[in-house]
Design goal:
heterodimer, A: 317 residues, mainly alpha, MetI-like fold, 2 domains, two-stranded antiparallel sheet, globular, B: 249 residues, alpha/beta, Rossmann fold, 6-stranded mixed β-sheet, 4-stranded antiparallel β-sheet, 37% helix, 27% strand, binds adenosine-5'-triphosphate, binds magnesium ion
C-alpha cells in the first residue's frame, strides 16, 4: 500500500496500479514543464551573457540601439513596450468591465451565450490576421480621420503632434486594446459570476437600484478584475506580430502617439534574421531575457490575484 | 387592530409554474405574523412577493398587495423595498465592507449621506439589533470575522438602518446555534413595538413563541390563518392540527 497527498494536503491511500501509474506520469509531466522553463531561462542567460557583460544595467537605461557601431541600449524599446501596453490597458479595461457586466448581469439568457461566444472568438483570431486588418483598415482610418481630427482639436497637447503616418504608437495601442479585450472580459465575467447571488439580493433588499447592486458586486471583485487586467497586460507586452505590422518599428522615445515606436517582442522578431554580429544576437537575446522576466512577473501577480479571489468566496462561506 | 398589508387573491408564478394560489391575508400592524408549512409550499415565495424580490429571479405575480392602502405591485420596486426590509436565511453581510459600512450601506441608497447623521443611525441600529456592545470597538473591521449569529444581527442592523416599516424574515435563525437563536427571538419581541414583522419558520416552537398570528400554507394555498394561540391549541382544520403536531410535512 502507498500513501499519496491529494490536493488538499490530506493523505489517502491507493493500491491501485493504475492510480499509482497516473500519479507518476502526471507528476513527471509537471516536472518537465518546470524544467523546460528553467532551461529556457538558463539558455537565454547564457546567450545574453556577452551583452550583459558589456553593457550591464546600462542596457536598460541607454537609448543607443545602433547595430553598426555595436552599441545596444534598449530603453526606447522598453519604453515603447510599456507605453503601448499601458495605454492599451487604459482603453481595454473599462470596455472589458462593461462587456463583463453586460454578459453576467444584464444580457437576457438567449443573448448571453452567443455574445460570450463572440467575445471568446476574438481571442482565437491569429494575430497576423489582426495585423493585416491593422494595415488595411485601422492604419488608413487613423491616417485619414483620427489623426487629423486629434491634431486639429487637441494639437496643442504633445501627445497629438507630428505628421499623420498612420503607422505608429496609436495604431499599436488600438490593435492591442482589441486583442486583450477578450481575455480581460471573459475572466472578469467569470469572477463577477462567482459572487453569490445573495450579495445582489442583499443590496436590492436595502433599496439599491440594479445599477447600485452591480457596483457592490464590482467592489467585491476589485482585486480579481485587477488580476484579469494584468493577464491582459501580460498578453499585450508579449504580443509580436500584430504590433510589429503597425507600430512603425523605430526605437524612438517620443511623447507623440503619432510617432513610430518599437516593442521588445517586435524588435526581436524583426531583427533576429538580420543580426549578423555576435554582439547583436546577444543583445537581442538579452532583450528576450528582459521580456521573459517581465512577463513572468506580470503573469504570476495576475494569477495570484485571480486565485485569491476564487479562494475568498470559498472561505467566506 | 390596524391592517398594515392586505394581500388579496395573490397568485405567484415561476414561468408557467404556479406556486401561490389565491392567497389572501390581512397582516396586522405592529404584530408578528409567522408563516409555516412544509418545504416547498411557497413560504419564501410569499415573503419575496411582499417586497418585490420575487421578480428578481424572474417570477411574476397576479393579485394585489396593499401596503397602507397603496398597491405595491404597481409601484417602483426600489421604493417598495425601502419600506419593507428583508432578512435572509443565510447571513449575507458585504464581505469587503467594514461593520460600520455594512450598516451604513443602505443609507446611501436612500439619499442619506451626512456623516454625523450616518454615525448616529449606525449606532442606533446596532443597539436595536443588540449587537452594539459586541462590536463597538471593532466597527472598522470586516463583518465576515463575526460569528454566524453576530452576522445575522449585523444584517438586521443593516436593515433597521434604512428605517423600514415592515421586516420580512425568511428562517432568520435556521443557520444559527440555540443561543444565537434565542437572541434573535428576543430581538423580534423588541422590534414588534415599532415594526410589523412577517417571519417564515420551520420551527413550530419558534412560531408559537414569537408570533401573534400564524398562517399555514400548503402546496401554495393558504389553509388556515388565525391567532397563533388558536392555531397551536385548537385549529379549525384537521390538516393544520396534524402539521403543528408534527404528524406530517
Ligand atoms: N427560483 C425558482 N425558480 C423556479 N422555481 C422555484 C424557484 N424558487 C422556488 N421555486 C419553486 O417554488 C415552490 C415554492 O418554493 P419556496 O422557496 O417558496 O418554498 P418554501 O416554502 O420557502 O420552502 P422551504 O421551506 O424549503 O424554504 C417550490 O416548488 C420550488 O420548487
Ligand atoms: Mg424557503
Amino acid at each position: 500500500m502507498k500513501f499519496f497527498k491529494n490536493k488538499n494536503g490530506s493523505i489517502y491511500t491507493s493500491n491501485n496500479l493504475g492510480d499509482i501509474f497516473f500519479e507518476k506520469i502526471t507528476g513527471f509531466f509537471a516536472a518537465v514543464v518546470l524544467i523546460l522553463v528553467i532551461l529556457m531561462a538558463y539558455e537565454m542567460y547564457a546567450g545574453a551573457k556577452p551583452s550583459i557583460e558589456k553593457f550591464g544595467w546600462g542596457f536598460l537605461v541607454s537609448s543607443a540601439w545602433d547595430p553598426v557601431r555595436e552599441m545596444f541600449g534598449a530603453l526606447p524599446i522598453i519604453y515603447g513596450t510599456i507605453v503601448s501596453s499601458m495605454l492599451a490597458l487604459l482603453i481595454s479595461v473599462p470596455l472589458s468591465i462593461g462587456v463583463a457586466v453586460f454578459l453576467s448581469e444584464i444580457a437576457p439568457s438567449w443573448l448571453e451565450k452567443p455574445a460570450s461566444y463572440l467575445v471568446e472568438l476574438l481571442a482565437g483570431i491569429p494575430s497576423v490576421v489582426y495585423g493585416l486588418w491593422g494595415i488595411f483598415v485601422l492604419v488608413p482610418w487613423i491616417r485619414n480621420d483620427v489623426q487629423p481630427f486629434l491634431s486639429q482639436n487637441f494639437g496643442f497637447l504633445p501627445f497629438f503632434q507630428g505628421p499623420p503616418y498612420g503607422f505608429g504608437l496609436l495604431a499599436a495601442v488600438l490593435i492591442l486594446s482589441i486583442m486583450i479585450l477578450p481575455i480581460i472580459a471573459s475572466i472578469s465575467r467569470d469572477i463577477i459570476r462567482s459572487v453569490p447571488h445573495d450579495q445582489r439580493e442583499a443590496a436590492l433588499a436595502l433599496g439599491a437600484t440594479k445599477w447600485e447592486s452591480i457596483l457592490i458586486v464590482l467592489k467585491e471583485v476589485k482585486s480579481g478584475i485587477l488580476g484579469a487586467s494584468m493577464l491582459g497586460l501580460g498578453r499585450a507586452v508579449g504580443e509580436t506580430m500584430a504590433v510589429t505590422m503597425v507600430i512603425g518599428n523605430r526605437p524612438l522615445i517620443s511623447a507623440s502617439l503619432f510617432d513610430p515606436s518599437y516593442t521588445m517582442a517586435s524588435a526581436i522578431a524583426n531583427e533576429f534574421t538580420e543580426a549578423t554580429s555576435d554582439m547583436y544576437i546577444s543583445s537581442l537575446i538579452h532583450l528576450a531575457l528582459v521580456l521573459f522576466v517581465i512577463t513572468i512577473i506580470i503573469n504570476a501577480l495576475a494569477r495570484l490575484l485571480v486565485w485569491s479571489m476564487d479562494r475568498k468566496w470559498k472561505t467566506v462561506r | 387592530m390596524e391592517i398594515k398589508i392586505a394581500v388579496k387573491n395573490l397568485n405567484a408564478f415561476y414561468g408557467k409554474n404556479k406556486v401561490l394560489k389565491n392567497v389572501s391575508i390581512d397582516i396586522p400592524q405592529n404584530k408578528v405574523l409567522a408563516i409555516i408549512g412544509p418545504s416547498g409550499c411557497g413560504k419564501s415565495t410569499f415573503l419575496r412577493c411582499l417586497n418585490r424580490m420575487h421578480e428578481v429571479v424572474g417570477g411574476t405575480v397576479q393579485g394585489s398587495i396593499m401596503l397602507d392602502g397603496e398597491d405595491i405591485t404597481r409601484k417602483d420596486p426600489v421604493l417598495v423595498r425601502r419600506r419593507l426590509g428583508m432578512i435572509f436565511q443565510k447571513p449575507n453581510p458585504f464581505p469587503t465592507m467594514s461593520i460600520f459600512d455594512n450598516v451604513a450601506a443602505g443609507l446611501k441608497y436612500n439619499g442619506k449621506t451626512d456623516k454625523k447623521e450616518t454615525a448616529e443611525i449606525v449606532e442606533k441600529s446596532l443597539k436595536q439589533a443588540a449587537l452594539w456592545d459586541e462590536v463597538k470597538d471593532s466597527l472598522e473591521q470586516s463583518g465576515i470575522n463575526l460569528s454566524g449569529g453576530q452576522q445575522q444581527r449585523l444584517c438586521i442592523a443593516r436593515t433597521l438602518a434604512i428605517q423600514p416599516e415592515v421586516i420580512l424574515m425568511d428562517e432568520p435563525a435556521s443557520a444559527l446555534d440555540p443561543i444565537s437563536t434565542t437572541k434573535i427571538e428576543d430581538l423580534i419581541f423588541e422590534l414588534k413595538k415599532n415594526y410589523t414583522i412577517v417571519i417564515v419558520t420551520h420551527n413550530m416552537q419558534q412560531a408559537s413563541r414569537v408570533s401573534d398570528f400564524t398562517a399555514f400554507l400548503y402546496m401554495g394555498e393558504l389553509i388556515e390563518y388565525d391567532a397563533t394561540k388558536k392555531i397551536f391549541t385548537s385549529p379549525e382544520l384537521k390538516q393544520t392540527e396534524d402539521y403543528v403536531r408534527g404528524r406530517f410535512g
